[in-house]
Each structure stands twice: as structure tokens, then as C-alpha cells.
Structure prediction request, 391 residues.
Amino acid sequence: MKSSITIAFILLSIAISSCRRGHTILFSNDGNRLEISSSGEIKLSEDETTIQSISQMGYLKFIHNEDELYAEPKNGVIQYELYKHGNRLDPKTDDGKLFISSVVKDLIASGFDAKDRLARLYARGGTAAVIKEIPNLSMDNVKTMYVEFLMSNDSATDEKLISAANVIATQIGADYEKSKLLSDNVAAYTKDSVLTASWIKAVLSIGADYEKVKCFKGMLQENLNDNQILAVLKASKNLGADYDKTQILSTIMDNKSFAASHFQEILAYNGEFGADYDKLNMTKKLLSQRELPDGDAYADLLAFMDKLGSDMDKSTLLNTVLEKGPKNEDQWISLIKSSSKLSNGLDKSNMLVNISKKMPVSDKIKDAYMTAAKSLDNEMDYARAVKAVER
Prediction:
């Protein structure tokens, strides 16, 4: 058959998924007509060049424009009626046999006899034989059957799983089919980071972010190690919408142990959001999951706050840090210095007053506080801040 048959198959929304009961496919477009119908149990020959048997009362009909094949059993023998370009062919001649073989190939591409054929392929050449055949298949739902076979046949070895993920990424076009395969088999890809990486690569081949998010959230429900979670976090940066990214990040931060160990990675991720609203909410959640960090991580947190656009958002996070409680003198001084960078005098004064109520007795901390107070331009704001610390 010509390549147009393959194109036609790709456009079909209904596929022959079994040859053990009646099925009909009809397609017509721009003068190209395809019809396949069958009934009963139909088996193909071992070499896949002809039809081995059709059960009693069964039949097979294949029509593509002027090419036609009709087959039915009669007295234990399959009777053929063949037409090529409208001209009748004798099934016993070389041309007739070649025509039958070509039709069989198109039937196989549609998923006809898939279960038995997969068993034959695997028996002949293992995983490699199954994978080699997938590009010859016409429709995604048929390719899906072959991928599912790789994932479920006997025990799914690492080789099979990685091969299956690669097929999903490169051979299957429909986002729904990709997402379903990856979601249904996610647990198998959590055994180690190599498998997880192959799974993530396949997820990133999905076009719709909605389906990617669904896959990532499913993976994050599994018992992952830190490296695997980091891999998902990094991959989720490929999502287009900040809303989708916040869903993934929020799910990751529900793992308090991970959030504590990878504070700076998450904070850096937050910094890539376009809207300060998302930066604020995700950072508040991050801070709610753990104590304040030490050293560079604490400095990064304050630097992150300084970059927020509004004093209101900065004040919200500064007060969150204050409520968590700086751990030492240096952290208190750094918090005061960050507060002094607020541009609105009232917000700055309010923040300093809040700090004065909680800061420990220390000459260095008080000196930092007074320096910050002096940055207030309004005398009333300044007087209020000084009065608060002198109580």
C-alpha cells in the first residue's frame, strides 16, 4: 500500500485494537477513502505475510480507494477476493500474494493482532525487536500498546523501562497517551536517579503543561531521595506558567525534610517567578517549613527580600523572619539592616518598632538599630523608633 494509507491511519480516532471481535474503521478525506471491518477471530501467519485463519462466520474487509481485499473461511480454507486499482487479482499469483502481504502490513500498523504479534516479536528479538517495530505503527494508541508491553512483560528491567521512556518521548505524539503511560508507571521509575531522569525526559516531551504538572505531582507522591526531588524541581522550570510552577514547588515543600536541606535551591527557584505575589507566598511557605537557616542561606534570604518590588511584601517577609526568631547577634543585625532599606518611612518605622520588642539586649544590636533609625527622614517616625528601643 502507499504511504497515504499510513497518513490516513494517523488521522483516525478509532483504531482496531483487537481482532477477536467485530471492528470497523471508516475514513474519508480529500478523495482518500479507507474502510476496514472484521468479525470473528482472525490470526495472521507467523511470517506476517498472509492471513493464517478466520473463525467460522468471520470475515475481513479492507478497502482503500480502488484497492480491496475480502477474506472469509470456506471449508477450512480462506477465500480471497482482491482488487488492485479496480482490477481483480488472483490470490495465488505473485502479484496477489504481494498485495495480501501489503494489506497485512497495514493491518498490523493499525494494531490488528497486536497481542499475539507482540509475543512473537519479543520471542524473536526481545526488547530491541519490539522497539524497532514501533516507528512502523500508525497510531499513538497502538504504539501505547507496545510500550505497555515493555513495561509489563515479565519483570520490567531497567533496560526496558529506559527504552519505554525513550519511545514515549520520541515516538508517541499525543500528550494524553504520553501522560497516561508515564503516570500509570511512575513507581517503576523511582528505583534510582537514572530511571527518574529517563522518565523526566519523557515528561518534558509533552506539549501541554497541564499534563506535565499531573505527571510531576504524581512522581512527587512517591518515596524519592533528595537528588530525585531536585531533578523534578529543575525540570519544572520548563513549565510556562508561574501558577503551574507554584503547584510543583508547593508539593515539593510539603516534604519538610527536603525543604530544610535545600533551602537555597528553593529560594533561588522562587526568585524566578515573574510576580512578587508568587515569590511572597512561596517564600512564606518555605519559612513555615523550618527554622531560619544559618550563614549564607540566611544572607540569601535577606537579599531575596531586598529585591521584592513593594515595601508591603518586604515587610511581610521581614516580620515572618522576626517571628521565627533570628538565632544570633549577626542575624539580628542583618535583619535590622534589611529593615533600614525599606523606602517608606512609616513601614520602616513600624518594622523597627516590631524588632525593638523582640531583639535581645546587646550593644552591637542596639547600635545597628540606632543607625537604622537615623535613616528615617520624618522626625515623628524617627522619634517613635527611638522611643521604642529606649523603653
Observations:
- Confidence is low (pLDDT under 50) at residues 1-20.
- The two ends are 93 Å apart (CA to CA).
